[in-house]
Design brief:
This protein has 228 residues and is an all-alpha fold. The protein is built from eleven helices and no strands. The longest helix is centred in the C-terminal third of the chain and has 28 residues, at 200-227. It comes from Paenisporosarcina macmurdoensis.
């Protein structure tokens, strides 16, 4: 049987000395990393790691586009001349494809695509100031005539006499109309997304899903062509 030699534990003084020596080394490494971060990012493995970390939250929460929604996106997008994948990306970010319950945000945004009442009905409405919640009656909120009067973006897509942000077709056509008028119809997607929500992070998130869905559609198209 081998007899193992027990290592003598480090004294408190020695441990303290090691800690003291590590502090300037750690600080030096931090300063160097900060100064040369731009150069470090050019190293492929560092760049890949940075991209993975940035998109990690998105990738954890990724969801497939519900197939039953695609014809609705396509119809609205075709009418307003924007990419349907942009609508899908907004829908994913706004309400996780309408799985959010209720479809009402703490600040008052409503429906499948989270419209503020004043944007849906029109900012010319006399009660519309501030964040756009307004003091609009429930009846006026969905009245196409009132919406036309005040220049809102609400659309009665299914022609049932009301423009309802809680009705999927109406919500998608309304969002498409807004995005189109904000620049998406002429190809300025980033501007249109920023108009929808004035947040750089929001723009990045929507563009992430838009590009992802565009790539998926391209791959599906290539696969279909190969099988024919």
């Amino acid at each position: 049987m081998k007899i193992r030699n027990k290592k003598k534990p480090l004294s408190i003084a020695t441990k303290g000395l090691i800690i003291i020596l590590m502090v300037p080394i750690t600080m030096t490494m931090f300063v160097l990393a900060s100064v040369y971060w731009g150069d470090l990012q050019r190293i492929p493995i560092i760049h890949t790691l940075k991209e993975s970390i940035q998109h990690a939250p998105n990738k954890v929460m990724e969801m497939d586009i519900p197939k039953e929604y695609i014809p609705i996106y396509q119809e609205a997008a075709e009418k307003y001349k924007i990419p349907w994948t942009l609508l899908a990306a907004h829908h994913r970010i706004e309400t996780k494809f309408s799985t959010m319950d209720p479809l009402l945000s703490p600040v008052g945004a409503e429906g499948h695509m989270q419209f503020m009442p004043c944007t849906f009905v029109g900012w010319q409405h006399p009660s519309c100031t501030g964040n756009g919640k307004g003091a609009i009656s429930e009846e006026d909120k969905t009245n196409p005539e009132i919406i036309a009067k005040y220049g809102g973006y609400g659309v009665d897509a299914n022609e049932d006499g009301i423009a309802d942000p809680f009705q999927l077709d109406d919500a998608m056509h309304s969002a498409a109309k807004y995005l189109a008028s904000s620049g998406a119809a002429t190809g300025d997607l980033e501007k249109a997304i920023h108009m929808y929500n004035h947040s750089d992070e929001y723009v990045e998130d929507v563009l992430y899903y838009y590009n992802k869905y565009e790539e998926e559609q391209e791959q599906d198209g290539q696969a279909l062509s190969s099988s024919e």
